[in-house]
Amino acid sequence: MADITSEIKKRRTFAIISHPDAGKTTLTEKFLLYGGAINLAGSVKGKATARHAVSDWMEIEKERGISVTSSVLQFNYDGYCINILDTPGHQDFSEDTYRTLMAADSAVMVIDASKGVEAQTRKLFKVCVMRHIPIFTFINKMDRDANDTFELLDDIEKELGIATCPINWPIGSGKEFKGVYERGSRKVTIFKDTEKGTKEGMAEEISVDSPELKEFVGEDHYGQLMDEIELLDGASAEFDQELVDKGELSPVFFGSALTNFGVEIFLKHFLQMTTSPLPRVADIGVIDPIKEDFSAFVFKIQANMNKAHRDRIAFMRICSGRFDAGMEVYHVQGDKKQRLSQPQQMMAQERHVVDEAYAGDIIGVFDPGIYSIGDTICMPGKKFCYEGIPTFAPEHFARVRQVDTMKRKQFVKGITQIAQEGAIQIFQEYNTGLEEIIVGVVGVLQFEVLKYRLENEYNVEIRLENLPYEHIRWIENEDFDLNKLVGTSDMKKVKDMKGNPLLIWVNSWSIGMTLDRNPGLKLAEFGRQ
Ligand code: G4P
């Protein structure tokens, strides 16, 4: 039996966040390549295979061409056991994407060097900040023409409000990309367009003080590098592990995932700068990952879209101790002892049944419909709850109408169950009954999923009428009289399933106006569970 302490200490669990096309998939593939989990990066995401080849959990989703899944990949590298949480983007961006970040101990932010900070990165970043987790930046696609390096850093600092500390520095970009200078070791790694998708063609290293460097990078780049080093050493924030740990300083790396340049340098530094799973807050206090017995929380529920199988998979993040398949555990919210059924993990490309797993790992278990997002699982005899998972702001709203009003009961049952699983949020107009239901989603694909599932699982046909609202805030004041609220013309008052009041607006600036008009009003961007 493996030693629990060393198993937990070697774990690193992180999410990769980015805007679509910045290179998240390519970078993940290269990580796997170094971990020896795959032999050739192209085998994960070849041209012929679907984009989601590695990430998809559910065959059924692939058949339907819809992926609502965030996946987890585990691999070993250099003595570490790494869990990468994928945060799906594109049209499958959903509340699950945010929830995945609740299970990570740190985040890697991939930025396209020619684009800087983009919309989806901004949204995901907010969640990382809320959690105060360390954020590492990988500025990708240096083999293409990039924005000015100082401007890129400035963009991150201004747009995201986080200080940056470049660990290495690029020399040129695009056709003129010569390599990166590592500030700590004062060494320059020379860029060689490696054979795509392989580890071959190891880059050459040379000291920045070596007379040969000028030859390698050319006179102009050499001069520029010297100037930039001087500027950088005088102006940029110094590396401070404590600030990194608190998520206040982001170490920045430059490279090109596609040509596999700068990936291993990044991985090595990153693994050293991140920590193994940290204690997590529960209602009885802080739970130590090593000293305490097994405990976990559910951060995502994956419904099976196949009508014939109503089962679901509940994804849990193990927070402490060791999990053994077949052991008896206690589901706190359900107040029941049970065995976790068919626990699974994703190793490189394959899903497999786990015999044991440790704090930091993610397991997916068969869920007959008993778990809810945020639930705690621990050992029998213990009883505590991890902090709940917040409700994230939907950005798209639609009014739902039933085609056949006779099926009211099935409709309410279906829509409520789907909302409980966390795929959608439902609201009612303030001061009216259930007859008018407004659905809010993070990604528009969820509307399609809702329609499909109501039809297939509950035999209810609906029509969705899109509403123009895009912004939502929870009202934090417990005693605020909503009837007296002075709003804006594009505002609507709604309430959630629990009766909590919320406000939705068409325009973002109206939020500020509403605050101005109602002194004392407190609005929150995340809803409490
Ligand atoms: P994502 O997961 O963040 O959405 O991005 P992904 O890795 O799929 O990369 C998006 C596109 O950018 C891909 O090209 C990929 O090959 C390319 N790319 C990723 N990293 C780099 C890089 O460092 N340099 C350059 N030049 N390109 C990079 P595609 O043509 O859309 O896909 P594919 O046909 O290559 O699969």
From TrEMBL:
Keyword set includes Protein biosynthesis: yes
UniProt keyword annotations, A-Z: Cytoplasm, GTP-binding, Nucleotide-binding, Protein biosynthesis
Gene of this entry: prfC
Record-annotated Tr-type G domain positions: 9-278
Family matches, as HAMAP family: Rel_fac_3 (MF_00072)
Protein name per its UniProtKB record: Peptide chain release factor 3
Claim: Cytoplasm is one of the keywords in the record: yes
Residues that bind GTP: 18-25, 86-90, 140-143
Functional note: Increases the formation of ribosomal termination complexes and stimulates activities of RF-1 and RF-2. It binds guanine nucleotides and has strong preference for UGA stop codons. It may interact directly with the ribosome. The stimulation of RF-1 and RF-2 is significantly reduced by GTP and GDP, but not by GMP.
Gene3D superfamilies named in the record: P-loop containing nucleotide triphosphate hydrolases, Peptide chain release factor 3, domain III, Translation factors
Compartments reported by the entry: Cytoplasm
Domain of life: Bacteria
Organism of derivation: Jingyaoa shaoxingensis
